[in-house]
Design goal:
The complex is a heterodimer of chains A (361) and B (394). Chain A has one domain (79-358): MetI-like (MetI-like fold). Helix content of chain A is 70%, strand content 0%. Chain A has 15 helices and no strands. In chain A, helix 10 runs antiparallel to helix 13 (286-299) and helix 13 (286-299) packs antiparallel against helix 15 (328-358). The relative contact order of chain A is 0.09. Chain B is α+β, with helices and mostly antiparallel strands and 394 residues long. Chain B has 2 domains: 2-51; 82-179 and 242-389, MetI-like fold (Orthogonal Bundle), CATH 1.10.3720. Chain B has 13 helices and 8 strands. Chain B has helices spanning 2-8, 19-51, 82-115, 120-134, 138-152, 182-212, 218-236, 261-288, 291-299, 304-334, 338-341, 346-357, 360-389; strands at 160-163, 166-169, 172-175, 177-178, 243-244, 247-249, 252-254, 257-259. The chains are: A mainly alpha (361), B alpha+beta (394). At the A-B interface, helix 2, helix 8, helix 9, helix 13 and helix 15 of A face helix 2, helix 4, helix 5, helix 12 and helix 13 of B.
């Protein structure tokens, strides 16, 4: 009864494979989705072409403000003509290679630290030397570099400085707070809980106000800190509370067995934490720590309110120049792109890291 | 032989090696250090205050404020006290936070659902929105929206009129609203009574369903009661239809409801920024309910609305609510950035007060206290809620 079946290679209908099939499956599967697609396309049609026209076709790139006012499109000239001030603020014009070099060192270090197999002792030394060199480049005063007062620092280097130093200094403090919150000693525990909850309950801006107005009152007569350092302290105190909560998450994920094993080896508290618990707990919390770095980076923009010349403030002072008044959209879009690039690359990295760590290698 | 002797009569452990004594010592040291630091800072502060001739204390609250506030929910003038000015600020913060939270939840849910849509275009658009909005500082967004209002909107004389009695200008948005009528008070009352009735019906319907298995169409009946009662009241008052349209008089609009550009810029910034985070929370919540749950619910014959109400939502909400609350709290805290664009929220009013009186410590303390109150009351509510919805393992 066996019958040889004539097999014929049937190609699938053109409507279910290829570009048409994809469009059918992903955009027009069902009445509701079809309507959604059409509405979305209409919306894009209304928004995207005028935007492209404004941003690229009718736009002016290298003109003065007067010429810009006659055109209909975007005035990117505001960036092209003022980018040095927006990026570096009041830093002496001839010396701006120094903050530029400092930023390049920072980007280089960040780029090199991306790979997890580079995470060894030499990298830590490289960071310490790198941060020190950056400070030296910014401040000057020795090795034939002209001294530049920190009141003249501004723009992107200041933003990066506040974020990077903020996180670097806040991390150890956050770890101590997290350990304190997990401590069995009620006195220490209550102190840490009070600190963490108090800081997390108030907006950063109230701490910045405190740094600007109240910190000077805390110090004995004659002792003064400069404004940047005070804002930096406020950012550190603020970030530490958030780091403490993230690290606590990592500590809670450690199994009891780890502590018992360390105890049975006769390790004391400090050695248990340093050799057994923290290396594991901190590894778990790397991705959320990157998220905190992202918010710290975004939050540095708040120093505008206490009149530090960070990236946003330098942009605003360009906008208050009568020649460039009224081109806020272009200026803010430029700053937004800078922030976006920074945050997007970090969040992408954090996602990549999370995938790697969850693979368990 | 020495070993034997040691084990037979154990040496007394010196007290500094006793963990209990050590813990107490360590705590004393920590508290002592913190106390010393506090003492040092406070004594410095007191000396500095004395030198600057500032008397500390909250006495200034009863003095005349002598500054005007742009918008207020309660009657206020420069002749009122600082305490009242600060109250105006708190109410303005609550106003923007409340409206912001409601719109954010709605918008964020839509975007979160759009992110999970099978429609590729919509899903990608939602993804781009979430990524872009999360990566731009909120303060920059606020400045951007404020600048858009100031630079691209026409003066009130040439206000844009997109229809529906709405006028857009660089002085804000003017809405046409129904003219004041005593009926409105009773309509609000009818609405509140309707809500209470629906709550009672809901409890009764649930009890009846548990007993008899009969399902009462609570949702439809509830909707009819909540909106029907005010409508009947409206009819009973002879359908007052008169509208209060904004009219251009002199330099600005009069009449109608005028919303300031500061408020709109702040609201837009907060809503668009926080909605991106809420969308991620909603997406994670929906994805946390496994597909099997829906299939199991369908297989026992539940209708789609019941599947959603009884099976999917209770599980998704358990995941969504805690991070959602913290996002709402973030929105409230971020509303303090209003000071940068000149909306008179609490921080802004407190800042003016500090500048006028020099009572900076009290001012910052007040700011912290108000936001702490918001945070702590929210987390108290969250603890209560978490206990209520926590999984009861059987």
């Amino acid at each position: 009864m066996e019958q040889a079946v004539q097999t014929e290679e049937l190609r699938p209908p053109i409507t279910s494979v290829g570009p048409i099939g994809w469009v059918k499956n992903n955009l027009f599967n069902g009445v509701f989705n079809s309507i959604l697609t059409i509405v979305t396309l209409l919306f894009l049609w209304k928004v995207v072409p005028p935007f492209i026209r404004w941003a690229f076709i009718d736009s002016a790139w290298h003109t003065t403000g007067q010429v810009c006012r006659q055109g209909a499109g975007a005035c990117w000239s505001i960036i092209a003509m003022n980018y040095r001030f927006i990026l570096f603020g009041f830093y002496p014009y001839d010396l701006q290679w120094r903050p530029f070099l400092a930023m390049m060192i920072l980007f280089g270090l960040l780029f090199y630290s991306r790979e997890r197999n580079h995470w060894k002792r030499p990298l830590a030394y490289a960071w310490i030397i790198g941060l020190f060199t950056m400070g030296l480049l910014m401040k000057g005063g020795i090795l034939g570099l002209t001294s530049v007062e920190s009141t003249q620092w501004g723009g992107l280097p200041l933003t990066l400085l506040l974020a990077v130093f903020g996180l670097t200094a806040a991390y150890p403090l956050g770890v101590i707070l997290a350990l304190g919150r997990r401590s069995k000693m009620p006195g220490v525990k209550v102190l840490c809980i009070l600190y963490i909850e108090l800081i997390r309950g108030v907006p950063l801006i109230s701490l910045l106000f405190m740094s600007a107005i109240i910190f000077p009152l805390f110090l004995p007569e004659g002792v003064t800190f400069n404004k940047i350092l005070r804002a930096q302290v406020a950012i550190i105190l603020f970030t530490a509370a958030y780091i403490a909560e993230v690290v606590r998450g990592g500590l809670q994920a450690m199994s009891r067995g780890q502590y018992e094993a360390a105890e049975s080896l006769g390790l004391n508290y400090i050695l248990t934490m340093r050799l057994v618990i923290l290396p594991q707990a901190l590894k778990i919390v790397i991705p959320p720590s990157v998220s905190i770095l992202i918010s710290a980076f975004k939050d540095t923009s708040l120093v505008v309110i206490i009149a530090l010349f960070d990236l946003l403030k330098t942009t605003q002072s360009v906008l208050s120049n009568p020649e460039w008044m009224g081109f806020s959209r272009e200026a803010y879009v430029f700053v937004a792109i800078l922030y976006f690039l920074g945050c997007f690359s970090m969040s992408n990295y954090s996602r990549k890291l999370e995938r790697e760590l969850s693979r368990g290698d | 032989m020495r070993g034997f002797k040691d084990s037979a009569t154990p040496e007394k452990i010196p007290f500094w090696l006793n963990p209990k004594v050590r813990a107490i010592l360590f705590q004393f040291m920590t508290l002592g250090m913190v106390g010393l630091l506090a003492y040092y800072l406070i004594s410095n502060t007191l000396i500095n205050l004395q030198r600057q001739n500032i008397t500390s204390g909250f006495g200034f609250l009863h003095k005349e404020s002598s500054f005007e506030i742009g918008e207020s929910l309660i009657p206020y003038s420069a002749a009122n006290t600082y305490a009242r000015a600060l109250l105006v600020g708190v109410l303005n913060t609550i106003k923007v936070a409340f409206i912001g939270v409601v719109i954010t939840i709605i918008l964020g849910t839509f975007i979160g659902v759009a992110r999970l849509s099978t429609n590729w275009l919509l899903s990608k658009l939602a993804a781009i929105y979430i990524e872009v909005m999360q990566d731009i500082p909120i303060l920059l967004q606020l400045f951007f929206w404020y600048a858009i209002f100031y630079e691209t909107m026409p003066s009130p004389e040439q206000a844009l009129n997109p229809g529906g009695g709405i006028y857009l200008s660089n002085r804000g948005v003017a809405f046409t609203i129904p003219e004041g009528h005593p009926a409105h008070k009773y309509m609000l009352l009818a609405f509140l009574i309707g809500c209470v009735i629906v709550y009672v019906i809901r409890r009764w319907a649930r009890k009846r369903q548990e007993k008899t298995g009969q399902i009462f169409p609570t949702f439809r009946v509830g909707l009819a009661i909540v909106f029907g009662l005010p409508f009947i009241t409206w009819l009973a008052f002879g359908t007052p239809m008169k509208m209060d349209a904004p009219k251009f008089v002199g330099f600005n609009f009069q009449g109608g409801l005028m919303v300031s550009p500061e408020f709109i810029a702040l609201l837009m910034g907060l809503v668009l920024y926080t909605a991106a985070f809420v969308a991620e929370v909603v997406r994670a919540g929906i994805q946390s309910v496994s597909k099997g749950q829906r299939e199991a619910a369908m297989s026992i014959g539940l209708r789609p609305t019941l599947v959603l109400n009884l099976v999917i939502l209770p599980q998704a909400l358990r995941v969504i609510i805690p991070p959602l609350t913290s996002q709402m709290l973030n929105l409230t805290k971020n509303s303090s950035l209003a000071v940068a664009i000149g909306y008179p929220d609490f921080v802004s009013v407190a800042n003016t007060t500090m500048n006028q009186t020099g009572q900076s410590i009290e001012g910052v303390a007040l700011i912290m206290a108000v936001y702490l109150f918001f945070s702590l009351s929210t987390s108290a509510f969250m603890n209560w809620y978490n206990k209520r919805v926590a999984l009861v393992e059987r």
